[in-house]
Amino acid sequence: MCVESCAVRSALLNKFRSKLEFLVNTAATHISKTRFTPNTLTFLSLLASLLGVPLVILTQRGLVLVAVIIVSGFLDALDGALARISGKSTLRGALLDSFIDRICEATYALALLLLGVDVYAVLVFLTLSFLVSYLRARGEALGVALTGVGLMERAERLIGLILVSTIIDVADLLLANTALVLVAFLTGVTVIQRFLYTWRQLSSVK
C-alpha cells in the first residue's frame, strides 16, 4: 500500500514538474529576446521576497505570503532557465543564485514568524532546509550529483510553505503549526536521504 501511494505521489510530482518546467522554459525563451539577464531575475526574486516582509506586516495575511513565494519562486526558476537558454550560465551566477535562494528562504521564515507561526517550528524547518541545500552543494563539490535525491527539494519545500501560509488564513495557527512541523519532518528525512546517498557514493571513491 505504501509503495503504491509513493508511486502515485512520484507520478503526480513528475507530472507537475514537467508542466512547470514547460511554463518556465516558455517564459524564459521569450525573456531571452529582451535585455533581461539571469542575474537581473535573481535580484528581482530577492526584491520580491524582501517586499513580502512589510506587506505581511501591513496585511497580516497568509495569502499575501503565498503570492510572494509564488512570484519570488517563479523568478528564481526563470533565472536558471534563462541562463541555460541564452547560454549565459556562469559560475558567479550560480553562486549568486544559491546565495540569494538562502536569503529568500530566511525571508519567508521571518514572514511566517510575523504571522504568528511557532518560532521553534520555523527555526527547525529553516535549519533543516539549509542543511538540504548544504548537502547538495557539498556533495556536488565532491563530485556527487544530488539533483532529484530526497523528498523535499526546493520546489517541494516552497509548496509546503505555500500550504502552511494558506492554512493560516483559511483555518488557524494550530493547524498551520502542525503543517509546518510535517514539512520540517519531511525536510529532515531529505537531509538523511541526501547524506546517506552521498556517503554511499563516496564509499566507492578512494
Descriptive tags:
7 helices, 206 residues, Four Helix Bundle (Hemerythrin (Met), subunit A), 2 domains, mainly alpha
Précis, in short:
With 206 residues, the protein is mainly α.
Give a verbal description of the structure.
Helix 1 (2-31) crosses helix 3 and helix 2 (38-59) packs parallel to helix 4 (91-114). It is built from seven helices and no strands. The protein has two domains: 1-114, CDP-alcohol phosphotransferase transmembrane (TM) domain (Four Helix Bundle (Hemerythrin (Met), subunit A)), CATH 1.20.120; 116-206, Four Helix Bundle (Hemerythrin (Met), subunit A) (Up-down Bundle). The N and C termini lie far apart (40 Å). With 206 residues, the protein is mainly α. It is globular.
Q: For the terminal residues, how far apart are their CA atoms? A: 40 Å
Oligomerization: single chain
Classified by CATH, the class of the largest domain is Mainly Alpha
Which class of secondary structure composition applies to the elements? mainly alpha
Major beta sheet summary: none
- Overall number of structural domains: 2
Work out the helicity level.
over 70%
Count of DSSP strands = 0
Please write the string of helix (H) and strand (E) elements.
HHHHHHH
CATH topology of the largest domain: Four Helix Bundle (Hemerythrin (Met), subunit A)
Strand content: under 5%
Uncertain runs? none
Radius of gyration: 18 Å
Shape: globular
CATH architecture classification name of the largest domain = Up-down Bundle
Question: Total helix count?
Answer: 7
CATH homology superfamily of the largest domain: CDP-alcohol phosphotransferase transmembrane (TM) domain
- Mean of pLDDT: 88
